[in-house]
C-alpha cells in the first residue's frame, strides 16, 4: 500500500544545524534545495519554507505511482541536514483499488448491469434481487465507504522549537544546565495523539587543556511537576574531550515524551564531568507531536 495517493500533497520536514557550532541554521531557505525524484529519475525541484529554529519544509504533489526519492542539499559546507534523504511510495495498494471500483459502481447505470430481457445477466440479476433486499446492499456499501474514509485520514505534526542555550561550567560534579524555557503543548479539539518525541542536542567544547569525560542526563518537567530523568547516559554514549583546548564533542538524542493537551513542557541537560576545567555547553531542543482526527 502506498504512503500517499497519486496527486496528494506531501510535506517533507528536515532539521538543519551548523556543523561546527551545533546551532540551528535559520534564515537559509535560499541556500537549501529540495528535490522530489520520480521513478523514471526525473527530478522535480520544489519550493521550501522555513518552519522555525532550523526546521524547513518542502511540499510536492507526486503525479506518478511508484517509489519516489526525496533529496535535500545545502549550498554551505558547514551544515548538517537531519533527514536529508528519504523514500516515498506513491499510489497502488488496496485503497486505490477500492476507490477505482467504487467510482465504476457509481458511474454504472442499471441497463449496463442488468442487460436486455433476453440476456443471461438479466436473469441472474432478477434472481439476486429476489434473494437479497436492497437495504443489505445499502448497508454494505455504507460500510465500505466508511472504511475508505478512515483509511484516508492523514496524521498531522506540530513542531515546538525551544531557544538554544549557551552556558559554561567549571565543576567535577553534577551540574544542571539552564532550561531554554517552557512550551505549552496543545492539540486541536477532537485530535488523538499518535506519537510525540523530543530531539535533544548538546555540544561541549573544552576551554583549556584539561581532558574531560562527561556523563549526560536528559530531563523533562511536565506541568511544573519537577524535573524527571528521560535517559541517563553515564558511560555510552557520553561526551569525550581530549586534553586540547577548544576540542568539541556532541550528542543528539531522540526520545518519546508524551503529555496531554494544555500541559507545559520544559527540557534541560545535566552534565557530570570528571574534571573541574571549564567546559562550554550549547544545547537546544525540539518537541514534535503527531496526531489525527479519528
Give a description of the structure:
The protein has 4 helices and 19 strands. The model has no long low-confidence stretch (mean pLDDT 84). It folds into 3 domains: 10-91, Immunoglobulins (Immunoglobulin-like), CATH 2.60.40.10; 93-151; 157-292, Jelly Rolls, CATH 2.60.120. With 294 residues, it is an alpha+beta fold. It is elongated, with a radius of gyration of 27 Å. It has helices spanning 93-106, 110-114, 120-131, 134-151; strands at residues 10-18, 32-37, 43-46, 48-52, 55-60, 66-74, 79-82, 85-90, 156-161, 165-169, 174-176, 183-185, 192-206, 212-222, 227-233, 239-241, 248-256, 263-273, 279-292. The strands form 4 sheets. Strands 11, 12, 14, 15, 16 and 18 form a 6-stranded antiparallel sheet that branches. Strands 9, 10, 13, 17 and 19 form a 5-stranded antiparallel sheet that branches. Strands 4-5-1-7 form a 4-stranded antiparallel sheet, with no helix packed on it. 17% of the residues lie in helices and 46% in strands.
Structural class label:
alpha+beta
Distance between the termini: 20 Å
CATH class of the largest domain: Mainly Beta
Q: What proportion of the residues form beta strands (DSSP E)?
A: over 45%
Mean of residue pLDDT values:
84
Amino acid at each position: 500500500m502506498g504512503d500517499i495517493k497519486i496527486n496528494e500533497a506531501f510535506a517533507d520536514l528536515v532539521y538543519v544545524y551548523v556543523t561546527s557550532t551545533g546551532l540551528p541554521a535559520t534564515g537559509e531557505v535560499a541556500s537549501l534545495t529540495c528535490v522530489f525524484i520520480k521513478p523514471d529519475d526525473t527530478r522535480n525541484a520544489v519550493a521550501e519554507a522555513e518552519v522555525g529554529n532550523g526546521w524547513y519544509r518542502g511540499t510536492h504533489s507526486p503525479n506518478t505511482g511508484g517509489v519516489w526519492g526525496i533529496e535535500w542539499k545545502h549550498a554551505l559546507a558547514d551544515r548538517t541536514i537531519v533527514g536529508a534523504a528519504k523514500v516515498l511510495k506513491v499510489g497502488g495498494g488496496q485503497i486505490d483499488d477500492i476507490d477505482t471500483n467504487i467510482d465504476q459502481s457509481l458511474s454504472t447505470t442499471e441497463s449496463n448491469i442488468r442487460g436486455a430481457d433476453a440476456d443471461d445477466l438479466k436473469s441472474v440479476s432478477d434472481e439476486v434481487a429476489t434473494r437479497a433486499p436492497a437495504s443489505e446492499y445499502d448497508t454494505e456499501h455504507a460500510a465500505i465507504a466508511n472504511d475508505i474514509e478512515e483509511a484516508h485520514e492523514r496524521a498531522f505534526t506540530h513542531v515546538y522549537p525551544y531557544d538554544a542555550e549557551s552556558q559554561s561550567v567549571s565543576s567535577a560534579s553534577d551540574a544542571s544546565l539552564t532550561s531554554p524555557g517552557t512550551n505549552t503543548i496543545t492539540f486541536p479539539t477532537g485530535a488523538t495523539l499518535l506519537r510525540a518525541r523530543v530531539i535533544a542536542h548538546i555540544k561541549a567544547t573544552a576551554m583549556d587543556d584539561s581532558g574531560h569525560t562527561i556523563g549526560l542526563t536528559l530531563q523533562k518537567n511536565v506541568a511544573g511537576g519537577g524535573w524527571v530523568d528521560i535517559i541517563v547516559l553515564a558511560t555510552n554514549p557520553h561526551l569525550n574531550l581530549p586534553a586540547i583546548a577548544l576540542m568539541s564533542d556532541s550528542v543528539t538524542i531522540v526520545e518519546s515524551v508524551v503529555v496531554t493537551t494544555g500541559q507545559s513542557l520544559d527540557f534541560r541537560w545535566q552534565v557530570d564531568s570528571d574534571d573541574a576545567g571549564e567546559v562550554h555547553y550549547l544545547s537546544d531542543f525540539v518537541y514534535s507531536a503527531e496526531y489525527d482526527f479519528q
